[in-house]
C-alpha cells in the first residue's frame, strides 16, 4: 500500500447488465489483473467496505481477513449527530472545550515533529515514513481535501493533533497523535467532534478509519457511528512469511505503532 493510503481498491467499470452479470465480469477483470502482478515477497491491500473483489483473490490463494471500522453519516443535522454519541463522550467533549482551543495547523512539519516526539516519549519506534508528508499535505490543502486540526492548551502548547482527508463523499480520520499529559482527558474526543462538524458542513460520511485493538473499538464506538467491514487481502512468500512469523513470535515486533492513536 502507498504511504498514508489506508484503503485501496481496484477501479473497474463492470459495464451494464444484471447485478450477477456485472459481478462475474468484475471478478473476471480482477483475475486478469492478479495474473499481471509482478513477483513479490509480500502483498497487502485493504479493500473498501463495499468491495466483493476478495472473491477473486481468494481463488488465487490469497489470505482474507476482516477489519472493522466505524462510519458516521454526517449528512444528518448537528443536533442529531451530537445526540447519537454516548453521554460520557459528550461530557468529555464539553470539559475539553473548557480547556482547549481547536485550530488549523498550516505547517505540516509542526505535525510531524509533534507526532514523532510523542512516540519518542512513549519509547515507541515510528514505522511511518514522513518524507513525502509535507508535499502530500500541501497538495491536499490546495485541493481543499485535507486539514490538520490541533487542540491546544491556553499557553499554546499542543495536546493533540489529527490529520483529516476527504473526497468523493467521504472524510477519513487518517492520522492522530496525543501528548502524554495527565491532565488531558478529552483532547482527541474534542478533535473527533470537530472533524464530525467539518464533515457535516460538507455533507460527508466520516470514516474513523479502522479498528486495530479492542480499546480502539470501545473508544470509537462511542461517537455514534455504525460498524462496517473492510477486507484485508494478503499473501506472503515462504521465506518472507517465515521471517515475519519469527519476528512476531520471538521478538514481538509490532508492524506499526497504531492505526489511529499514539
UniProtKB/TrEMBL annotation:
**Per the database record, which ranges form the BioF2-like acetyltransferase domain?**
89-208
Pfam family for this entry, one: Acetyltransf_6
* Coiled-coil features, chain-numbered ranges: none
What protein is this chain from? Answer: BioF2-like acetyltransferase domain-containing protein
**The species this protein was found in:** Methylocystis bryophila
Amino acid at each position: 500500500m502507498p504511504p498514508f493510503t489506508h484503503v485501496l481498491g481496484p477501479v473497474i467499470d463492470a459495464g451494464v447488465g444484471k447485478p450477477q452479470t456485472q459481478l462475474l465480469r468484475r471478478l473476471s477483470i480482477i483475475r486478469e489483473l492478479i495474473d499481471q502482478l509482478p513477483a513479490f515477497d509480500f502483498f497487502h491491500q485493504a479493500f473498501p467496505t463495499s468491495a466483493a473483489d476478495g472473491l477473486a483473490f481468494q481463488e488465487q490463494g490469497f489470505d482474507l481477513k476482516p477489519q472493522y471500522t466505524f462510519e458516521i453519516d454526517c449528512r444528518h443535522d448537528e443536533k442529531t449527530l451530537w445526540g447519537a454519541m454516548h453521554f460520557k463522550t459528550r461530557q468529555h467533549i464539553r470539559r475539553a472545550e473548557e480547556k482547549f482551543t481547536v485550530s488549523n495547523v498550516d505547517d505540516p512539519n509542526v505535525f510531524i515533529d509533534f507526532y514523532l516526539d510523542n512516540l519518542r516519549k512513549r519509547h515507541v519506534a515510528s514505522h511511518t515514513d514522513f518524507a513525502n508528508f509535507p508535499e502530500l499535505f500541501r497538495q491536499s490543502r490546495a485541493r481543499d481535501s485535507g486539514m490538520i486540526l490541533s487542540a491546544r492548551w491556553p499557553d499554546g502548547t499542543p495536546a493533540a493533533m489529527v490529520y483529516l482527508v476527504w473526497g468523493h463523499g467521504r472524510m477519513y480520520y487518517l492520522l492522530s497523535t496525543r501528548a502524554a499529559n495527565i491532565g488531558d482527558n478529552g483532547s482527541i474526543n474534542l478533535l473527533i467532534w470537530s472533524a464530525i462538524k467539518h464533515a457535516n458542513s460538507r455533507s460527508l460520511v466520516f470514516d474513523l478509519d479502522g479498528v486495530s485493538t479492542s480499546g480502539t473499538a470501545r473508544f470509537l464506538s462511542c461517537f455514534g457511528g455504525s460498524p462496517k467491514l473492510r477486507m484485508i487481502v494478503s499473501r506472503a512468500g515462504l521465506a518472507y512469511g517465515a521471517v515475519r512469523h519469527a519476528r512476531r513470535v520471538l521478538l514481538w515486533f509490532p508492524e506499526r505503532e497504531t492505526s489511529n492513536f499514539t
